[in-house]
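Task 17 of the worksheet. Students: predict the tertiary structure of the chain below and write it out as structure tokens. Keep your answer in the requested format; marks are given for formatting as well as content.
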Amino acid sequence: MKKITNHKRVLVTGGAGFLGSHFCDRLVADGCDVLCADNFFSGTKDNIAHLIGNPRFELLRHDVTIPLYVEVDEIYNLACPASPIHYQYDPVQTTKTSVHGAINMLGLAKRTKAKIFHASTSEVYGDPSVHPQTEGYWGHVNPIGLRSCYDEGKRCAETLLFDYHRQYKLRIKVARIFNTYGPRMHPNDGRVVSNFIDQALKGAPITVYGDGNQTRSCYVDDLIEALVRLMATSDDFTGPVNLGNPEEFTILELARKVIANTGSRSEIVFKPLPSDDPMQRQPDISLARQMLQWEPVVALNEGLRRTISYFRDGDFRR
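Model answer:
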């Protein structure tokens, strides 16, 4: 497991969210001084409550659309609602979070000469016509659809990072993150794993959108390990790099595994796909294997077991 050099001053935006909180855990464990900034739109204090009081952790309520003036060595920009339910609630603010947030964090990186990581997304590929997707694929994206606030916001943010890199020689790292699951997911975020587990634990029908064809998902611990390795690579390697699980399983298989692991008697029901929902997306992680010596290691059954245990405990329902 790659370990980060101790005592770096690190800013994590969106640090109280699903991925951000796990990343804060890892950074604190590696001895970094972590400043977690979050506006708590989709993140929660419960996700980072166990870190409050740790001398290496500081929490700041802040919206990245507003400039932030702090002294840091590294910036991890994870701020943006990532599930359709959250990012479609206020699409204008979602776009601002991606674009203005990137501008503000890049400005901070420029002033402090900090290395900056940006959490991009597989959504930049849209509804792809190429399978699996490599980093060289430019995507097939609807610029005016219901998902565009997120998809195009993330695409614009990538543009800004590479323009700052070329124009101001900023040290940047960009990861395109595919579906990720694990503890601290919100039960009502509209994502397939959290939906299935929440429905199964309630004994409610499990909703499958479309015909239940292929999907894939990466366990959060694997994803965090990849991000740490990415930041430790040479400054010459900027990314973008795909991070996700290329191993396919069907939605129906996932639903049945959730039912089996929860002991639920839920039935499976089918509904039409939402607007602009991609039919199939699969990462080619050859670049991550080559540059990061990384690939997912947590099996689906083990990841589901850990996630179901978290949902069953119900601490997030307070």
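Marker's comment: The mean pLDDT is 91. Residues 77 and 105 are 7 Å apart (CA to CA).
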